[in-house]
Amino acid sequence: MSVRTGPDPRPLKVLVVKLSSLGDVVHTLPAVMDMQAAFPNAQIDWVVERGFAPLAARCQVVHRVIPCQLRRWRKDPWSPTTRAEWRAFKTDLQQDAYDAVLDLQGLTKSALVSWLARTTPGGKRYALANRTEGSGYERPTRWVADVAVRVTPHIHAVERARVVCAQALGYAVPAHVNYGLGSVDAHTTLQPKPWVVLVHGTSRADKEWPLAHWFELGQRFKLMGLDVALPHGNEAERIRSEALAEMLPGAVVWPRLSLDDLTAEMAQCVGVIGVDSGLSHIAVALDLPHVQIYNFDTAWRTGPVGLTRQCALVDCPTPTVDAVWQAWQRCVASPHVVPSTRCAGQDANHGLPLGGEP
Fold first, then answer.
1. Do the beta carbons of residue 37 and residue 59 sit within 8 Å?
2. CA–CA separation, 293 vs 299, rounded Å?
3. Domain ranges of the chain
């Protein structure tokens, strides 16, 4: 499939609709970079929840970010503030007409945004034709689409977005994975010394790693001459960060930072160890040495893919400190693929190389 059937001097105008969440936004970055590589003069705009807009804006090839606040608006849809902000969003969204509108979310809310977007006379709306394993899918995304793209149900989140965009615009998925964040200029008040970021916070309690494990890991870094930095995104995570810092002399609890500042701070650190969370996925996009901890077998769908110096570590019920430590040492010692650790009797990565080329 291709959005152009003949010569056209105009740059291709593409609208990406991927609203949330943080990890999903990170997983969409390679698809955006693929499109720019296939169409160097393309104008790629992105509709995203306002809270994640700074990350989309950091992508080297994104022309314009169109922030929305659907999560907040739906809580009070009839208030004067919501109605005014909704009108302003529609005006912003409809500022340009697009040759391709790509709904990479697959939900009713993204279908609504795609439907509201303007297309050029020959423009089309594209969306997923089917649900993929472990991901949400709602039928309106297909009803709105002019073209529904079918993908294999068992697919990594990064590859799913790449395949949909490639099939929609008519190019081959590149072998190389590029997240497009490039170098990040850090403006920070931290002392000029090596830090390892411990991302202990996540959206679900069953994804967490035991506090005692984080403490023991921090001690090992201290013996190596490395201190740890502890970010937090809510009150519970702040309390956990402060508890760890009290036990680990030299550890620092970062203040509550904006996503932009947090990305900049992470970029200057030695590396990251974290559970399955948005911040861990940012570490992947920054190509930092990184170990991503999974308590159950979902790394095949969201774990590090496409870059080096990273791995997903899967074990049941939870990876040991020794296993995480050994994985970290391999990540910093070798630029080659780091294999994932597997649960007994299970294939933890389902044949998908983690930390190397897909």
1. no
2. 9
3. 13-169, 195-333
3-state secondary structure of 134: coil
State the Cα–Cα distance between residues 293 and 342, nearest whole angstrom. Answer: 12
Burial 173-194 (b: 16+ CB within 10 A, else e): beeebbbbbeebeeeeeeeeee
Q: Report in angstroms the alpha-carbon separations of 14 from 114, 136, 311.
A: 12, 24, 33
Q: Residue 301: which of 59, 178, 136 has the closest Cα?
A: 136
In contact, 267 and 184? CB cutoff 8 Å: yes
CA torsion sign for 323, 324, 325, 327 is positive
Domains 13-169 and 195-333 share a fold: yes
Q: Which amino acid is at 131?
A: R
User: What's the CA dihedral at 349, 316, 134, 105 to 10 degrees?
Assistant: -80
Residue that has been written with the tokens 């169109």 in this structure: 66
Digit-coded pLDDT (tens) for 23-41: 999 999 999 999 999 999 9
Distance CA 28, CA 179 (A): 8
Q: Which two tokens stand for residue 59?
A: 């992508």
Q: What superfamily in CATH does domain 13-169 come from?
A: Glycogen Phosphorylase B; (3.40.50.2000)
Q: What CA–CA distance (Å, rounded) separates 260 from 262?
A: 5
Collect all residues with Cβ–Cβ distance below 8 Å to 271 and sequence separation of at least 6.
Answer: 196, 197, 283, 288, 289, 290, 309, 328, 331, 332
Total-model pTM: 0.89
Residue with tokens 């977005």: 161
Q: What CATH number does domain 195-333 carry, 3.40.50.720, 2.40.10.410, 3.40.50.2000, 3.10.290.10?
A: 3.40.50.2000
Give the three-state DSSP class for 195: strand
Tens-place pLDDT, residues 52-73: 999 999 999 999 999 999 999 9
Is residue 280 reached through a cis peptide bond, with omega within 30 degrees of 0 on the bond before it?
no
In the predicted model, what is the mean pLDDT of the chain?
89
